[in-house]
Amino acid sequence: MKQAERPGLRRWTRREYARLIDHGFLDEDDPIELLDGLLLVKEPQSSPHRTAVLLVAKALEAAFGEGWFVQTQSPIVLDDRSEPEPDVCVVRGAPRDYVDAHPARPALIVEVAHSGLGLARGRKAAAYARAGVADYWIVNLVERTLEVHREPARPGPARGHWGYAVVETLVAGDTIAPLAAPSASLRIADLLP
Amino acid sequence: MATSEPRTRRFSRAEYERLIDLGVFQPGEPIELIGGELTVAEPQGAAHYTALVKAAKALEAAFGPGWHARTQGPIGLDDDSEPEPDVAVVPGSPDDYGRAHPSRPVLTVEVAESSLAVDRQHKGSLYARAGLADYWVLNLVDRVLEVYREPVPDPAAPFGWRYARRDVLDARARVTPLAAPGSSIPVARLLP
Questions:
Q1: Are strands B107-112 and B134-139 parallel, antiparallel or unpaired?
Q2: A171 to chain B nearest CA, in Å?
Q3: What is the pTM of this model?
Q4: Closest of A53, A48, A165 to residue A115, by C-alpha
Q5: What is d(CA A168, CA A148) in angstroms, rounded to the nearest whole number?
Q6: Neighbour tally for A99: CB within 10 Å
Q7: A50-87, pLDDT tens digit by residue?
Q8: Residue among B8, B38, B157 whose CB faces A41 most closely
Q9: Once rounded to an integer, what is the mean pLDDT over residues B122-148?
Q10: Which of A8, A118, A160 has its CB closest to that of B4?
C-alpha cells in the first residue's frame, strides 16, 4: 500500500537546538541528535552495537596515534542545521582544543548500524557528504561488513541529493587505511563485534 | 531519498505552547503540532487565501449568531496536536477563547491545493481520531468540496481513524453543515 503523504517537518537551527537544551526540553542524555534540522531519535544501543563502537574507537586510536583523538557518541558541528553525535569520529588535536566549541571537521566518521542502516546510508550520508566529510564508514551489523563511503558528490543528474560517489564494501578478511592515516592498516575483523 | 521517515523527537501540546511562550519560533511561522510532530505548512497562494476568506464568510452567514468562524487559528485538539485549520466554526464569540484555544469545532475546513493528499489522509485521520463530526476539504485542484463524516477506527490510517463517508460536491451543488441543519450553502460561494 502506498504510504500516506506526510506534511513537511519544521527544521531546527543549531541555535534553536541550543535553546531547547537551555530551557530543559532536551537534556544532554537524551538520545537525540540534530541532523539537517531534524531532531532525530537515535538507535537504541544493543550490546553488539556498543561492542562495535568500542572496537572501532580502540582500533582508530592506535591507527592515528599522536596529534589526533577519537570521540564516541559526542557532538560535532557540521553546519547551521546539523549537530550530530556520530558513534565514532576522529578529530585533529587534543580534547582541550575543543573546550569552547564542538569539533567541526572530523577526518573520519564511523556509524555502527543495525536497524538504523537506512538512516546511516541515507540522511546521514547526505549530511556528511554535504559537510565535506571525506571519509565515512558504516559498520553494517546486519551483514557484518564495513561500508567505506568516499568522494562527497553534490546532487546532479545521477543523484537527487548529496551522497558519496564511491562506496566500497569490505568483509572480515579485508583491511582498510583511513584517508587521513594512509600508512595504517586496520583489519575489518578487528572492528566487528 | 529512498529511506523511510526517521523517528524524530515528539512534542506534547503543553511543550509546544511553552515553546511559543518562550518565543522560540519566528513570528508568523506557519507551524502546526500534528500528532506530536512539528509540521510546517507550505506558503499559500492567492487562490488559497481567497477560498479561505470566502468559506469563512459563507459559514458565518449560514451559522448566524452564537457561532463564529476562526481562520487559521489554533485548535487544542488533543494532548499532542494543535493544528491551525484554514476555517473552524466554534460556538460563542472570539472573547470566549481569550484564555484557551477551542478544542472541538463543529465544522473544520481545509483549503487544499498542493496539500491535497496530506489534508485528505493525514489531517483527515487526525480529525477523525478527535471525533470531529464534520470535516470539509475545499479541493481547488478539481474545484469540488469533499465532505467527510462519520469517524470510524481504521488501524491502517495514519492516526488509527478515518471518515467512513465522503461526498464530493461540485460547484452546482449545495451543502448543509451538520451543526447548522437549517442552512444551505451553494458550493460555488466557497470556491475562489
A1: parallel
A2: 24
A3: 0.87
A4: A48
A5: 5
A6: 6
A7: 999 999 999 999 999 999 999 999 999 999 999 999 99
A8: B8
A9: 97
A10: A118
Q: Is residue A147 part of a domain?
A: yes
C-alpha count within 13 angstroms, C-beta hemisphere, residue A173: 0
Q: How far is CA B167 from the centre of its chain?
A: 17
Helix, coil or strand: residue B189: helix
Residue in chain A closest to B40 (alpha carbons) equals A10
Across the range A180-189, mean pLDDT stands at: 96
Residue B27 near residue A28, CB atoms below 8 Å: no
How many separate domains does chain A show? 1
Interchain CB contact of A32 with B (< 8 Å): yes
d(CA B122, CA B97): 27
How many CB atoms neighbour CB A151 within 10 A? 12
- Which tens digits make up the pLDDT trace of B157-169? 999 999 999 999 9
**Residue A72 corresponds to which cell in the numbers above?**
564516541
Q: List CB contacts (< 8 A) between B15 and chain A.
A: 25
In the numeric block, the cell 542502516 is attached to A117
Q: Which domain holds residue A105?
A: 46-191
Chain B residues lying within 8 Å of A19, measured CB to CB = 22, 24
Q: Is the dihedral of CA B121, B122, B123, B128 positive or negative?
A: positive
Question: Rounded to an integer, what distance in angstroms lies between the CA atom of residue B150 and that of residue B175?
Answer: 16
In angstroms, the CA B16 to CA B24 distance is: 10
Note whether B122 contacts A39, CB cutoff 8 Å.
Answer: no
End-to-end CA distance of chain A: 37
A79 falls within a domain? yes
C-alpha dihedral (A110, A112, A116, A121), degrees to nearest 10: 40
d(CA B161, CA A160): 34
CB B108 within 8 A of CB B132: yes
**CATH match for B43-189 among 2.30.30.20, 3.90.1570.10, 3.40.1080.10, 3.40.50.620:** 3.90.1570.10
